[in-house]
Amino acid sequence: MYIHPKNLWENEPEVIEFIQKNAFATLISQVDGRPWATHLPFILDKSPAGEAVLHGHLAKANLQWKSFSENEQVLILFQGPHAYISSSWYNHENVPTWNYLAVHVYGKIRIIEGEELMHHLKSLVDGYENGRPNRVHVETMSEAYVESQIRALVGIEVKIEEVHASAKLSQNRDDVNYQNIVKKLEQSAFPLDKEVAEEMKKRRPY
User: What is the DSSP string of 113-135?
Assistant: First the structure.
């Protein structure tokens, strides 16, 4: 994706936290010569060799997985909060724009099975059940039931090769206009607007 130099997001711990917080992402590859996208949750993990990887799973009925051997590199999009920025919020004439946070990950994909797939499923369920009442675990489900469900899915692992991160948060504005944008977003009735305001305050406290 295009990233303006002012919006380049290079704080690795922040980017890692962002991926974990916005783990329901979009997996993009080529199927029969056309772009194909699947929406699914990913787990950010380390391989036995210490490499950064993302693992997830698709429905076996989804044709996308059948093309992975032909299209080794895939793209995964992580989308965060975003907000419309009105031109009326500036103290000078300007155009409206959009503030957002996004991370694109490129990597090599492979199918995972057996213990690797079970590790993914346990990590996924444990992670999202954490803090909820009446937590469930893969280990407490019957073996026959788990096996029947596994037959209907395909596990994947993506070895991360490139990460492109953009935090477009009005970094090109002076303090007066920056603070006014934050104020307007905080006053908004839209929850995502308030989230963008919080991200802006992290980067330029006042």
Answer: -HHHHHHHHHHHHHHHHTT-TT-
Segment 118-139 mean pLDDT = 92
Q: What is the average pLDDT across 51-63?
A: 96
Q: Which residues contact 40 (CB under 8 A, 6 or more apart)?
A: 24, 25, 27, 56, 57, 58
Distance CA 13, CA 179 (A): 25
Domain ranges of the chain: 5-173
pTM above threshold 0.85: yes
Q: What does the alpha-carbon distance between residue 78 and residue 56 come to, in Å, rounded to a whole number?
A: 14
Find out if CATH 1.10.287.110 is the number for domain 5-173.
no
Task: Say which residue, 92 or 71, is predicted with more confidence.
Answer: 92
